[in-house]
Specification:
alpha+beta; Zincin-like; three-stranded mixed beta sheet; 4 helices; 3 strands; globular
């Protein structure tokens, strides 16, 4: 398992994905969250759970891409699933691993 070095490395990676997915991020916060791994708003605000910093980067990438795709696809329908698969391959495996972890 390879975790993030620090919050700044994680944030830099979010911005790299945002550029790749052509998403404009207005604000980016990494903070403790009780019930979620991340959240996003329609006006470009992203919040990530600080616990992601201690997880495998592959799981972090899943959460990052998941949230960024919601800027253009607000649901988890066929288009969203196709885009997840295009960017992360077998994303369902990562999704299952993340769900098994307790926050």
């Amino acid at each position: 398992m390879r975790a993030w070095h620090d919050k700044e490395e994680f944030k830099a990676h979010v911005y790299e994905w945002a550029d790749k997915l052509d998403v404009k991020v207005r604000s980016l916060t990494v903070r403790p969250m009780r019930n979620k791994w991340a959240s996003c708003s329609t006006n470009g605000n992203l919040n990530f759970n600080a616990e992601l910093l201690g997880l495998d980067k592959k799981l972090g990438n899943y959460v990052i891409v998941h949230e960024l795709l919601h800027f253009n696809v607000p649901n988890h329908g066929k288009l969203w699933k196709s885009l997840m698969r295009a960017h992360l391959g077998n994303y369902e495996r990562l999704e299952t691993r993340l769900r098994k972890m307790s926050m």
